[in-house]
Task: structure prediction
Amino acid sequence: MGKVKRLTAAVAVALALSVGVASLPVGEAFQPAVQVFLPTAEASTVSDLQGEYEELEEQLKDLEKELEELKDQKSSYMDQIENYNKQLELIEKQMEQAQEEKKQLEQQIEEAQQQIESLTGEIDVNFEQFKQRLKAFHLQGEASSLELLLSATNFTDFLTKYTVLESIAEHDLELMNNLKADREEVIATQEKLEQSKQEVETLEQRLEKKQKNYESLTEDSEKAVKELQKDEAAKKALMEEIDKAMEEVDRQIEEALKESEMGDYVEGKMLWPLASYKRISSHFNPNRVHPITGQIKAHTGTDISANRGTAIYAANSGKVSYVRNYDGGGYGKYCIIDHGGGIMTLYAHCDDVLVEKGDTVQKGDTIAKVGMTGTATGYHLHFEVRVDGEPVDSIANGWIVEPN
Ligand SMILES: [Zn+2]
Result:
């Protein structure tokens, strides 16, 4: 087993995230974020590194799950806010209606008031007229109605005078009584209107209270959303850290893989590594412009187009020295076979790797299926031959021969 450089860049990021959201109207109990421990160990073997990588991968998955939960919580708060806003709109409409009603009632009260005043005026006028009439009698020479009556020359005259007086009085009194009754009726109506107005005002107060309540609920939910967003951002930052750590471990793995665990090279020409051949879509090229990043970066292998699921063959016998059977990084799912003598072959972007680390494989064994994992623009096999850890052009160096 080859000894490898120690993990120099000890990526020690111990970020303990715990962003709490105050207990709010809705949503399940807030899940505190997991504590993430990035590797500090001095891994020296590929399998140690692999273990670290998987640990990081696990943490990343946990964070992803948590992020999903945060998103769910956020959207539930958003739904709530929307609901509150609908309620607030409804309340606003009701308040407008109440205000309109109050305005009408006030107008009616004002009208009643005017009626009361005008009736009061009429009563006053009639009373004044009544007094004037009595005065008129007086001016005619009779000092008073009593004098008028006493001036009767006989009983018939008395009755006539009495009747006249009475009828004048009766007429005036009746008129005034009617006016008084009218006025009382209007006052009663006005009182009812005042009562209605008070009811509307009570309704308004209730609506205002409701409005304030919904406004504060909305505010709480908005605060919760902000907290969740903060937590989300923190988790994303942490995920980036983990990504970087994974890249670093990856680099270390690459370094570690340069050393062969086998003896001499197994000998023989290598087999074309695919069950069916389409075409070489990209040759080994130290100065290739990367199709995705646009940067000049060596293309360290030979890309062979193939349908998804096409069998990938072990180019020669050997021992499986490395397997990554999860998507991630540039190679995606890939494996490396150690053929001894510092010669290794690498098979990248697989849909699935069928062998396990440590497996002994024979030349022509199906070890994986063609896929598009990692950084790839189409289904193909990225086939790499490494000599003492350095990728070489597998065709130009005669390791494999392109089929006709
Ligand atoms: Zn490639």
Summary: The pocket of zinc ion is lined by residues 282, 299, 301, 303, 382 (CB under 6 Å). The helical segments are 46-139, 145-150, 155-257.
